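User: Please run a holo structure prediction.
Assistant: Happy to. Please share the sequence and the ligand.
User: Here you go; the ligand is magnesium ion.
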Amino acid sequence: MAIIDLKKLSKVYGFGDATTIAVDEIDLSVEKGEFVAIMGPSGSGKSTLLHIIGLLDRPSTGQYKLDNRNVSRFRSGKRAKARRDKIGFVFQNFNLLANMTALENVALPLAYKGKGTLRRLNQASVMLAKVGLQAREYYYPHQLSGGQAQRVAIARALINSPSIIIADEPTGNLDSASSKVIMELLKEIHKGGNTILMVTHNPELTAYASRVLYMHDGKIVVDQALKKNEKADIDELQKAHQEQEKANAKKKKGANNA
Ligand code: ADP
Ligand code: MG
């Protein structure tokens, strides 16, 4: 059964002449345990789609079923609760709170659970050790390298044991060595049974994924399964999209002439 199921899902920003259709009637079904890489040019709607799937935002129209529950019309409070229970978010710019230590940042999502401070910090400490940062617990974000900051962010994303990890260009601000560390970490998390959705501009990184989606103008225009260690060929994806466009145009023309 699909863990994520989207039907004709759209997100429209603005109105009148300033309307942008960021996500355009997307149908998508993701099974538990998939590792989905999302590619596509800037402005094609990747982040908007992830924000909706990650319950940070709401669709304008269409249906979103998460774990077979229709969450499309959830208001912010209910959305926040479902997000805490099921979703871990990793951002390109880490989004750590500057005035908190690594340990406090990781413990933050536990605050609502009413656990005592000590228990929360202990749990965060275990999670930081898992990402190899036990020695950096009391560092502030500005004292960490980009790669370390992202590992803290991943520990924070994992602290509530979410079933889905959503990562929007998680290595976008990292050098290749740090990127590798982050990707290996995501690979471990995936092996542990998590479903992962990740936006990336780097075709090399699709080698970690089991499926690649290519977006254009708010639509998923290519949806391709990847074999183990296979990398998506971005030129091929673009070509497949262009050929599909051509075929569609022809069909339309045919229909008009009929
Ligand atoms: P991507 O992540 O693929 O670069 P985005 O999802 O960020 O694309 O954006 C898709 C489209 O929606 C773009 O045209 C962008 O300008 C627009 N957009 C995104 N967020 C907003 C917003 N909060 N308000 C208005 N337009 C937005
Ligand atoms: Mg984006």
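The pocket of magnesium ion (ligand 2) is lined by residues 46-47 (CB under 6 Å).
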